[in-house]
Amino acid sequence: MSQLSTRHLLGIKDLTSADIQLILDTAENFKEVINRPIKKVPSLRDITIANIFFENSTRTRLSFELAEKRLSADVVNFSSSNSSVKKGETLVDTVNNILSMKVDMVVMRHSSPGAPHFLARNVKANIVNAGDGTHEHPTQALLDAFSMREKLGDLQGKKVAIIGDILHSRVALSNIFCLQKLGAEIMVCGPITLLPKHIESLGVKVELDVRKALAWCDVANVLRIQLERQQIKYFPSLREYSLYYGINKKMLQELDKEIVVMHPGPINRGVELASDVADSDHAIILQQVENGVAVRMAVLYLLAGVKA
Ligand code: CP
To answer: What CATH number belongs to 138-288?
Structure first.
């Protein structure tokens, strides 16, 4: 297979296992490209891409922009904070105005779950979801899978524990869909208040004790406590959260094996991860960021090849 089954990347849920394998294999080629002295290829020379971000981002926005520039696309960036959205313009009007300037692809982050799906139904460009509220963050899951595969080989049968604020996490859902399609076993772990009701219906194991989760897994993908999405108190204090769910070096030393520690960023240092883990050889957090550029190059390159 050399083509994706979809012309948008809205969520991992819509991708086939073959789509995911194709993206990861293509990303391996682009990783080689971005480590060359000349990091650029002409693949998207005739394509114009708009990155429109209605929510804050460091990694995803820079990573998409670099990926686009490494592929020689023309790039425009839009953030809602200094735009006419502030004057009341609707999402579709905003995007149609951007598209009338002959934009071919839109990469969008939005706080509302389903916003990129809505856009895909209403505008002509290829849409890439760069994170929609608490729903999905497909390119994060793809770069996580790429990073795990790079470290551990084939993910069939590998055990991945997703630890932390699962309830508010789009990374958790996309990781679950992506890793299951690659044959991995998934466990979610966190305080009961931060686990969605009926999460086991997705075919994941549920564990409340972080030490047991660490003892079970090959990879711990640790998630941020998303205070900005929490309207009520889900746990008494960050200090207490850190005491029961924070991962430190001593906990890893007590295991009878080496595990890989991941985090999508941004990290709350000293809350979900101690610095002696985040900065250790166990963690591949910065490799994840590096791999994000190659994976996003693969996604954009492959989507550009799927015609409407
Ligand atoms: N991992 C991630 O989405 O980070 P940003 O919010 O900085 O883009």
So the answer is: 3.40.50.1370
